[in-house]
Design brief:
The chain has five helices and no strands. The chain is mainly alpha-helical and 111 residues long. The chain folds into two domains: 33 residues; 59 residues, no CATH class. The longest helix is centred in the first third of the chain and has 30 residues.
């Protein structure tokens, strides 16, 4: 009987050591992750040399890195901070921060 108890104890010790090694490896791997810094696009105005469509492409890449793609609707308020002039007025008049991003984009591109 003592032999089975010793075997169980050794199995628990081995399992604990393997788990600790896995946690250590995971910790090391987590600290070695590459972190991307999103370059915030400049303020956009209809007078800019780039089109609104091109600006929104840059904006979406920025948001995907900065906020993730899981909640695109949170991008709407971020967009308002990067608009100026007529396009900012259109955004404000339609309460852009409260509109789903895809719908906001669609409406702004039609202007």
């Amino acid at each position: 009987m003592a032999g089975k108890g010793d075997e169980k104890d050794q199995a628990i010790i081995d399992l604990t050591q393997r788990m600790m090694k896995m946690m250590e490896d995971f910790s090391t791997a987590s600290s070695n992750k590459v972190h991307f810094k999103a370059l915030k696009p400049g303020i956009y105005s209809v007078d800019d040399t780039i089109s609104l469509e091109d600006f929104l492409i840059k904006f979406e890449k920025y948001c995907a890195i900065k906020f993730g793609t899981g909640d695109e609707d949170s991008w709407s308020s971020a967009l308002g901070e990067l608009l100026a002039g007529e396009i900012k007025n259109a955004y404000t008049n339609m309460s852009g921060s409260n509109v789903k991003y895809r719908k906001l984009k669609e409406v702004l591109l039609k202007r």
